[in-house]
Design goal:
The chain is an alpha/beta fold. The chain has one domain: Rossmann fold, CATH 3.40.50. Helices cover 28% and strands 36% of the residues. The protein is built from 5 helices and 9 strands. Strands 4-3-7-8-9 form a 5-stranded parallel beta sheet, sandwiched between helices. The longest helix has 14 residues. It is globular, with a radius of gyration of 15 Å.
């Protein structure tokens, strides 16, 4: 049960928020192995060609899963971090906006993509990432998360995409 490796940090990053800290999970060989095995079991590797992860913790789980299933990994990053030609997607936050980018040639048209991140909260970041992959011709097969904060309703923002979460907090 990965829940035993997740630490609650009250009032971080601001009062009233209970932050789900994955550091103990990452520090535990058993916890990390269990989370990667859970992601692998949740999404049949024959259903996707490549894994795409969002900076930064999506890189941790996405690359480990890609290694485990023998697939390639595509990073989605914050602006100005990718060296080749990129496309970007800006999305709204509670206060302000943010932007993510992907290499314009990262996905081949029709390539099947599994999207991976550590946490599904409001869904804004993943929704922007889905838009990026679709704009360059990728076919989203599913999204996989270690933790889902179900009470924030992020799942609804992702439309009809299949969603897998190892741990759901309601």
């Amino acid at each position: 049960m990965i829940e035993t490796y997740i630490r609650d940090i009250p009032d971080f990053p601001k009062p009233g928020i209970i932050f789900k800290d994955i550091t103990p999970l990452l520090q535990s060989p058993d916890g990390l192995r269990e989370s990667i095995a859970g992601l692998q079991a949740a999404c049949d590797p024959s259903s996707y060609d490549v894994i795409c992860g969002i900076e930064s913790r999506g890189f941790i789980f996405g690359t480990a899963l890609a290694h485990a299933v023998g697939k390639g990994f595509i990073p989605i990053r914050k602006p100005g971090k990718l060296p080749h030609e990129t496309i970007s997607e800006t999305y709204e936050l509670e206060y302000g906006s943010d932007t993510v980018e992907i290499h314009s040639d990262a996905v081949q048209p029709g390539e099947r993509v599994l999207m991976v991140d550590d946490l599904l909260a409001t869904g804004g970041t993943m929704s922007a990432a889905l838009n990026l992959v679709r704009r360059i011709g990728g076919e989203i097969t599913a999204c996989a998360f270690v933790i889902e904060l179900g009470f924030l309703g992020g799942r609804e923002k992702l439309g009809d995409v299949e969603i897998h979460s190892l741990m759901n907090v309601e």
